[in-house]
Write a structure and sequence with these properties.
Distance between the termini: 63 Å
Strand content: 25-35%
Radius of gyration: 24 Å
Helix content: 25-40%
Number of domains: 3
CATH superfamily of the largest domain: Vaccinia Virus protein VP39
CATH topology of the largest domain: Rossmann fold
CATH architecture of the largest domain: 3-Layer(aba) Sandwich
Strand order of the largest sheet: 11-10-9-12-13-15-14
Largest sheet: 7 strands, mixed
Length: 332
Amino acid sequence: MSLFNREYRVQREQGYLLVPLTRELLAVELLELKKVLPQAEICTRRFYERVGRQNKLVDLLAVKLQPHLVASLPHAIDFVGDIAVVEIPPELEIYKKIVGEAIMMAYKSVRTVLAKSSAISGVYRLRTFEVVAGEAKTETVHKEFGCSFHVDLAKAYFSPRLSYEHNRVASLVREGETVVDMFTGVGAFPILIAKKQRDVQVYAIDVNPDAFEFLKKNVSVNRVGSVVTPILGDAKEIATSELTGTADRVIMNLPETAIEYVGVACRVIKPEGGVIHYYEFSNSSHSTETAISRLTEAIRQSSRCVEKVLAARIVRGVAPFTYQVGVDVEIM
């Protein structure tokens, strides 16, 4: 109805949201509003001005798009270095350049806006992008917990939404441990581990040659070459031929197919036992319970057993009713 006054902030008061209006409502408008919000009331309140409102993405687009299109704006933007990655809904497809330019105006550190143009697919877990604003590039440097990661989003998988998970797992690693990251990508887990705990040995494996080159560069840039050993190849082959019985801890962040590699992880863990950090996608209403059950059964079939479930959590949403789930288990 174009009645929202964007110069002032929405406020809370005793369980109500107070929305500033541009003018008094006509009787017919109030009736229309009540059809959608039966409990809505009209009242008089003092509102506070919005600070820096001209930099807000919604405000910038409100003057260029119809209200129903503004309501369709993506709720999440991924920032990787100076690149913003956004998923453009179908109804905004013809306005994607406008959306991209508004993102650059709202977030001054952004130099490129990429729109996702395909789903993640293939062994290397890649997707295609379209540059909708800014510099025509997909390569950048992303900083996370004091580490720098060179990455090309079109050539190697990387998600800033896993930042918390990288730090959580790295914080669990103890002095003297040997860690195997079976699907390392550009090295987010092993490099952060090395920064937090120097007296460890981390083997970082990836099958993607481009990701491997960025991994080596990131190991060098972050000065963790004495701790992290980059290895190019398939985790099944490398782990079985070179790393059997060596690890205190294994990281399995390949949620699409990690279950197929549980047997390999069990062979890599030392005979006396160790910890597995396992990830999978789930659309179950009991996501964590399902993941624990699947992992426990796969470990049992590998002639080992779960001594203790250390943690189980939903890491992030990846699609409506679909989640990435993480499970930490101690096995014997």
